[in-house]
Amino acid sequence: MPWLAIPFSDLESKKALSRKFDVEGIPCLIILQPDSNEKEEILRDGVELLHRYGVEAFPFTRERLEELEREEKEKHDNQTFANLLSSHDRDYLLGHHPTNGQVPVASLVGKTLGLFFSAQWCLPGMKFTPKLVSIYHKIKQLISERPGVEGFEIVYVSSDRDRASFDSYSSLMPWLALPFGDPKIRALARHFDVQDIPCLIILGPDGKTVTKQGRSLINLYQENAYPFTEARLESLHRQMDEEAKGLPRSELHAGHHHELTLVSDGTGGGPFICCDCDEQGLGWAYLCLECGYEVHTKCVRAAGGNSTVGP
Question: Could you give the maximum distance between any two Cα atoms of the chain, in Å?
Fold first, then answer.
């Protein structure tokens, strides 16, 4: 670190600063303005600001941050496939097969598009990828059976640490990819504020953002989530509510030693990470009221005993 530091032995100063600024987790970067003692001038989210804006956040004043927010909103309002995925010296993406090695970005216009942020070193990403491949093929099949329905494609946005890892991991994917190490990769992560991977951003046929929760929606609804619009999700939510009426109010799950209770989104059902499949969940779930163990309704494996039907 090229900056100053409190001596390691000065525990009192470290404790005093943690108390003063209510530091509950690390890393944490507190930004103080010169000659200012007012609380409203203290920024507590310096790490997020640097991740989001980089050096452009300096000098971290309220005016500068408001200016950056306006610029960011304008970029999102005007985003297209071209300005998101193309650069001055590249107007193509990498295809999966040698026969279509370079696929023009312009060919994506009019399709629903997923931006898949992941890496081979990311274990959750490696686990999610086979599921996404399966859903990708199913969505493609659904589209082929419905003439006039908008197309669907995915672009891999790599966080791999070397070319060999990129080549190995991307070979598992039947979709397109940004070239390894392309400057657009970091720009996209910042534009969509991607802080954790795997992450699946869904863009509409016009290039505008539909949802940043693509991974969760795939886990919840599989291929039925397509085209991921609010209208589609509202329809699926109503369908889930109807199906929940026939689910047992409680279950004995083979993977847990306490009784699980059926809960809805409003009573503890989400968002959550399923303790059985380790994937995201939202909406109806089975929850252990004693210890917080929670699973998708589809992940419950009966362990015998009585079940009570109806929420």
Answer: 70
Spell out the residues 6+ positions from residue 27 whose beta carbon is closer than 8 angstroms to its own.
47
User: Which of 69, 77, 161, 152 minimizes the C-alpha distance to 116?
Assistant: 152
pLDDT of residue 36: 63
Cα–Cα distance, 285 to 281 (Å, whole number): 8
User: Residue 310 pLDDT > 50, yes or no?
Assistant: no
- Measured CA to CA, the distance from residue 233 to residue 241 in angstroms comes to 12
Omega within 30 of 0 (cis) for the link into 227: yes
CA distance 254 to 272: 20
pLDDT in tens, 80-106: 999 999 998 999 999 976 555 889 999
Query: What letter represents residue 63's amino acid?
Result: E
**Residue 96, pLDDT score:** 76
Which DSSP category does 179 fall into? P
Q: How many CB atoms lie within 10 A of CB 184?
A: 17
Q: Indicate the length of the chain as a whole number.
A: 311
CB 110 within 8 A of CB 205: yes
